[in-house]
Design brief:
The protein is mainly beta and 70 residues long. It is built from 1 helix and 6 strands. It is globular, with a radius of gyration of 12 Å.
Length: 70
């Protein structure tokens, strides 16, 4: 049985396989979607659109506006 990396949604705290979560990073003080999951820096994960909308409010040092990068 192969190893499946797990990550936790920053908002609702559900633990899911990494492939099922959206990764976000902070760039220029704003939260930005990391579609390729390869951006440098600390990654934050969300499990749904609802959690993605709430995610910026959980961050201390970011502006409460997210960039939707593809």
């Amino acid at each position: 049985m192969p190893h499946v990396p797990l990550r936790r949604c920053r908002v609702c705290r559900k633990q899911l396989p990494k492939a099922r979560l959206e990764r976000w990073t902070v760039r220029d003080g704003q939260l930005a979607r990391d579609a390729g999951q390869t951006a440098p820096g600390r990654g934050y994960y969300s499990c749904s659109e609802r959690c993605a909308e709430i995610l910026p409010k959980t961050m201390k040092h970011t502006k409460h506006k997210s960039k939707q990068n593809a």
